[in-house]
Amino acid sequence: MIRSLQPTDLWSLVQFARTPRANEARPREKLTRSCAEMLPPYTVFADWVPARGRRYVWVASDDRQVRGAASLRRRAGKDAWEIDTLLLDGGDGLCTELLERAGMTAGAQGVQRVFLRMDSESPLVSEAVRAGFVAYQRERLLQACASPTISAAPSIPAGLRLRADGDDYPLFRLFQAAVSSGVQAAEGATYKEWQATREKGWGRGRRSEFVYEGQGELLGWLRVTGASACGYLDMLVRPDEEAVAGVLVDFGCQRLAGKECMLSLVRETDTAVLRRLRERGFKEQDGYVTLVKHIAARVRAPCFIPAGA
Q1: C-alpha distances in angstroms, 186 versus 73, 112, 117?
Q2: Exposed (0-12), middle (13-18) or buried (19+): which is 52, by Cβ within 10 Å?
Q3: pTM (predicted TM-score)
Q4: Which residues fall within 8 angstroms of residue 280, CB to CB, at 6 or more apart?
Q5: How does pLDDT run across 134-157, given as a tens digit for each residue?
Q6: Which CATH number does the domain housing residue 207 bear?
Q7: Domain housing 231
Q8: CB–CB of 247/277 below 8 Å?
Q9: Are both 114 and 230 inside the same structural domain?
């Protein structure tokens, strides 16, 4: 039975959480298993607290015993949501049932897209596909356990500057130029869609964003997030701008000097960024697949009415 989380489920949820199990949903801030501090058990429930309009939580129960749980939260805008928690205790088809319920709830709220990132080798990817999700993107997580050796360079290289408020639409144009048509269809064929589907950051640490400008347009984007022990790099570069990829990687590593480890999640199609990171000592860790479910909008059917009504 799939239903919304109720206060009476607390005890069963505590028992369910006592057994270690992997979160099959992998939002960006939950990819850092090697760097994350150990958290006390009660902090797990912070992810499961429903918040109307911002988060929905369901459980799969059998005789009041929780066998699975899933939560759905907003991305940057109200039209795009993502599954950020998916915990299962076996059961054939249980994943599909939970994801179908998530899609139904999202549709009732007027959501247009629901996203889900999973380990690329997870056997549950096929269950997500049965629930109506479509795989559109593969990514690699790369890690450097110590700051790679790089040559000295100016603090901010020529062409690179801090992101400004007026850069949003140029960044959308950069996104269109840098990703495939399949990613565009999933994450935003229009500026409004792209704004709504943007993913949250790594969830911790201080963030700085930079853009690389050349010939009157943006050629690259860099986000540097520094937490207590780890640093995170996010990049977007035009496919033919390998030199720009090198500048962004070098500068990002300099900004994170002294961190115990550095991580970067990169699309497999971003070959220039992947190559530069490997040259700087980053090693590939896990692979991920991102799926999307497009929710059909409810449109009232036209009908005839008597004249003069």
Answers
A1: 17, 10, 13
A2: exposed
A3: 0.87
A4: 144, 148, 150, 249, 250, 253
A5: 999 999 999 998 665 555 544 789
A6: 3.40.630.30
A7: 142-289
A8: no
A9: no
